Amino acid sequence: MIGWLLVIVLLAYAVQRLWLGYPRPARACEWLAPREVHFLEAAADALFPSGGAMPISGREADLPRWVDDYLVVLPRSKRTQIRLLLLLFEQATLFFPAPGPLRKRGWRRFSALDAEQRSDVLRAWSRSSLYLRRLVFMALRAVLTMGYLGHPATLRHLRLAPYRIESPITEADVLYPRIGQHPDDNPLTPSDITAPSDGVPIDLDGPLHPDYEEHPL
Amino acid sequence: MSPPDGGEVRVFAQYERDFREQADVVVVGSGPCGAVVCHEIARAGHSVVLLEEGPPFRPDDFEIDAGRSMARTMREAGLRTTRGTIMPTMQAICLGGGSLVNSAICVRPPQFVFDDWSTRFELEQTTREQLDPHFDAVEALVGVGPTPENVQGKRNLLFKQACDALGYDSEPMPRNVVGCRGSGECFTGCRSRAKQSVDISVVPAAIRAGARVLTSVQVQRVLTEGVRATGVEGQVVEPFTGRRGHRFRVDAKVVVLAAGCMATPVLLQKSGDLANRSGQVGRNLQFHPGVAIAGIFPEPLDPQFGATQGYHSLQFLEEGFKLETLWAPAAVLAVRTPGFGYELQDRFAELDSFAVWDAIASCHHSVGTVKARRGSNLDPILTWKFHPDDLPVLVNALWVLARLFFAAGAKKIVSGVQRLPYEMHSLEEAEVLRSGRVRPSDLVFGANHAFCSTRMHGDSGKGVVDELGRCHDYDNLYLADTGIFPRCTAVNPMLTGMALARRQAHAIVDRL
Ligand SMILES: Cc1cc2nc3c(=O)[nH]c(=O)nc-3n(C[C@H](O)[C@H](O)[C@H](O)COP(=O)(O)OP(=O)(O)OC[C@H]3O[C@@H](n4cnc5c(N)ncnc54)[C@H](O)[C@@H]3O)c2cc1C
Ligand code: SF4
What we know:
The structure holds two protein chains of two kinds. Chain A is mostly helical.
């Protein structure tokens, strides 16, 4: 009887810890569950806080959105691995609680910790003597770094944003339709083929790729 | 566009039912090697079908965002790693194979590589002299030339200055590029169409000569009767999702597998452990592990401008490494930057004053295996172990890179070596790199040059194919990718693969 009670209590705790209490995200996601969005926001805050040397913070870079878009294009196995990574990090405070006094309840979910505790947790992961634990941290940071450094505002700030480039039309563009199209829907014909690249260096003050231009609000 | 003489290209949207084709030769894989075989066979007037699992990409299909780009153009979304020693390695899935995403570096291996190959592996005809005509021809086919000065950009030219200062040889990188604009984005696809990746150079030429090119088709099995291959079979796959659909079969007099060093062994294993009397299929896997150092200069370098890899030095080839300049999207270059929070942001903020130079190393002692998984998944299980005897080469390479950076005026360098200080501000501080403190597990490396998994050997008991790429056990089954290299090339492998493929295609034509 006591055993069963214990199982029920544990199950209830697991359900509460895994699913309950997460706010509904502002925007619907294709793959990410609310708990994953919430975790990613917390991790983005801790990894790339506001007020640093970069023009935007991780939260402003809307990393959950980037991760969601990324998951869409990943093969299933990699998508599962990344979602497991998020789950692991969010819940790992159970086994590796944030240091500090008991009243700060360092074993709460990562996203429920305060900013200082989150930093402490990241520091512990990044400096762990366990290779695998460091590896998990590096994997999480790698995913979020890809999104952060892919953001137009960070790239513009670093003068690393891609430039606008008009692609010449080659024989290949006439032969191959765009991915997903039928060749009959390829509007290009041999008469559309243009002169090849002239080798003129790109203009460092020239216009940026449209997706990376600064759009006035 | 309707190419003459029956040449054609088919894409995913065109497959409406199961189908069967026939040809003199079927080539599996449209990377640099497979494309060359296909081109030479078509030019000789024989019917040839080229099968490629990935789709053809046009500039409007390229993704600039590094993560999404890798997810679309690379196998396992670019997140493939070896087991044993964990090392990232990338292979492409697209028409043109690795040539679509690579830096277009085209270098002939030096004489000593071929001397080593021919003596160690009983390959008398595989000399530099015998291969030079093939090198000449493939270089002409894909427009190999030195990278022009006006598109080098500061981060490449600083490398030249540093080599001059230290008395090392260096030269503008020879690449299969015509009209480079220095956009530094070879990795996500050349929007200027300057890079002559084989999808826009060799494959269209093959189609003009009559080749049939079928994209989005995954070969799953080689068909055989006795000691002869009779064709291949597989399924149509949807781009990016990999969802499988209609079945197909191609019957041919000669079957050529050029699916790449990681995929060809899997195909052989999945076809009933084919051509493996020697026991060498999937063994001997080698890489050129690369280590890199970032130098931070006192002034911005505008690193976004400049040929992706514009300069190199062959000075240390005999000592086991080749020096190069390197660029990639910031999101890829900085992905392993240590730290978090403000410290991490401070490090990112210096990216505009960054130059990255790397060394690729010949690590002969470190070998691995390629194994097929159970079930229908064709992604390989890669195992590779870095051997401590290869450590001195990489440590020496790191030290030389550090010397170059300080000779070029870098204010500090970031070696990425774990357990060492993140930044080193002088050559004296960098001495730690060669102090004996660096352990194999401290190194951060990656490798996109892979070979030897179906190596050639004059002795049929020690290798999978002979000098002309023909399987020792199967009279009309050829392998034509970098897997057939007996050992690493010391230089970037693509051109060697193409030259060997051309020679092999001529041997096939001779017997058709
Ligand atoms: C990012 C990057 C940069 C590089 N830079 C350089 C460089 O600058 N210079 C250089 O020399 N080398 C470079 N390399 C390495 C070089 O690209 C490869 O060595 C070269 O592409 C190998 O050619 P391949 O024909 O053997 O195989 P691949 O290029 O791998 O081509 C094999 C093809 O077969 C297809 N295929 C696989 N399995 C199947 C199947 N079952 N059915 C149908 N099709 C299949 C694949 O989709 C692929 O298109 C780089 C590699 C990468 C990833
Ligand atoms: S540097 Fe830019 S223009 Fe030059 S080949 Fe690479 S992608 Fe094309």
